[in-house]
Design goal:
Blueprint: H1 2-13, H2 15-45, H3 54-77, H4 79-103, H5 106-123, H6 126-132, H7 138-147, H8 150-163, H9 172-189, H10 215-218, H11 222-251, H12 256-271, H13 274-284, H14 286-306, H15 310-336, H16 348-369, H17 372-400
């Protein structure tokens, strides 16, 4: 009987994850515009080259600043209400960004990208909502949600560049597209299952829960520390290469179309593996998936060092995208498995804030490395981080034995 009922149980476990996959798709669709164009637009609007990547970095900064607020709101109002609200913020952010491009205002553009960070913070909880509702299939639920971004990754960058010339001022229509996609996400999220409308127990870290472990006890777990270290690594390497990539690519002599294609490959790499990983991660284990992701990020760093040729540039951008997916999925699964339902408020927002902080570091650092020589230096830095993370995970694994 078990063999007959298991598939049905698995489908039930992943029901919420499948409903959240379109939410992820709309989020990735909108964010792909920012990922594709914000570095380029920031470079055009910035008063100096040293500020060119500030708008992109403010996306991550906005994410970090709003993460704890988002967690508190989830604890009070439930996942569904917060997911609708942050999508509405994306609508506002898109309008502000479009106005900034229209008027040539760098600082207004910074405000728009910072507000996108609020959307990112809320969308970061999609995978936790899926994991919470997945029974024992946490890892598969997380990768199923992430896989929802594939179609958006395929067409998002090209649509962003196509829409750039729809209106007289270049790129205004692209950011209006962000607003439209935010509105669509708000509508879709309002239809999510009622179970996501209830405040999940333990999300509000200020509410005492009987039987819950202390924050100190939770954060002494080697598996949790390894998971956060991995997601932070994935964020800083992806954030730095993704931010520097389009600008450095143009500096290498590649065309704007080739830079956009590199972003598309990168985003395909970020989300396409989810379809496969969702099927095998429970079988292979989070650590094997994580190590594979680290190896691919290592390859990305090596490609950046080796050559500035088109094939090497595209390889670096694709490999860091796939590596991010595997490392981020594996790390997120380790985090989700380290706490009980009543303890999530002591883990989720802290883990998200740490990961977001490292993404800010990566994107800010990229501003100094968005040159031909800087791209090679970035490759060296990525390789060193791979070595450090591998040593860290190994040490934490031994400590857990």
């Amino acid at each position: 009987m078990n063999t007959v009922s298991a598939p049905t149980d698995r489908r039930a476990d992943l029901h919420i994850a499948r409903r959240l996959a379109p939410s992820q798709a709309l989020y990735v669709f909108g964010s792909s515009v920012d990922l594709t164009l914000t570095g380029i637009v920031g470079n055009r609007l910035a008063p100096g080259r040293d500020l060119a990547t500030l708008p992109f970095s403010l996306i991550s900064a906005g994410t970090v600043v709003s993460t704890f607020l988002v967690s508190r709101l989830i604890g009070r109002h439930g996942y569904r209400a917060v997911f609708v609200t942050v999508a509405g913020v994306a609508l506002i952010a898109g309008v502000i960004s479009a106005m900034a491009v229209q008027t040539g205002s760098f600082w207004l553009f910074c405000l728009g990208t910072c507000l996108i960070g609020v959307y990112n913070a809320g969308a970061g909880y999609y995978r936790y909502a899926a994991a919470d509702a997945s029974g024992g299939a946490r890892a598969a639920a997380i990768t199923t949600v992430l896989a929802g971004g594939l179609v958006a990754a395929l067409i998002g960058p090209f649509l962003a560049t196509w829409a750039a010339h729809v209106l007289p001022v270049v790129y205004v229509a692209s950011y209006l597209l962000v607003a439209v996609l935010g509105g669509l996400a708000a509508v879709w999220n309002s239809t999510l299952p009622g179970t996501l409308a209830e405040p999940p127990a333990g999300t509000d870290s200020h509410t005492p829960i009987v039987g819950a472990r202390s924050r100190t006890e939770l954060w002494q777990q080697p598996a949790l520390l390894a998971g956060v270290a991995t997601t932070a690594f994935a964020a800083v390497t992806m954030g730095s290469m993704m931010t520097a990539g389009p600008i450095a690519g143009v500096a290498m002599g590649h065309t704007a179309s080739e830079a956009a294609f590199a972003v598309q490959l990168h985003m395909i790499g970020m989300f396409a593996p989810g379809f496969l990983v969702a099927r095998v991660i429970d079988r292979l284990g989070e650590r094997i998936i994580t190590v594979t992701g680290v190896a691919l990020v290592f390859l990305a760093g090596a490609a950046a060092i080796y050559s500035t040729a088109t094939w090497s540039f595209l390889t670096a951008m694709l490999a860091v995208g796939v590596g991010w997916n595997l490392a981020y999925s594996g790390g997120s699964a380790m985090i989700a498995a380290s706490y009980r339902r009543a303890e999530r408020g002591k883990v989720q927002p802290v883990a998200e804030a740490i990961t977001g902080t490292f993404q800010v570091i990566g994107s800010l650092t990229a501003g100094l490395l968005a040159t031909v020589q800087g791209w090679r230096v970035l490759g060296i830095g990525v390789i060193l981080l791979c070595i450090v993370l591998t040593a860290t995970i190994t040490a934490l694994g031994r400590a857990a034995e």
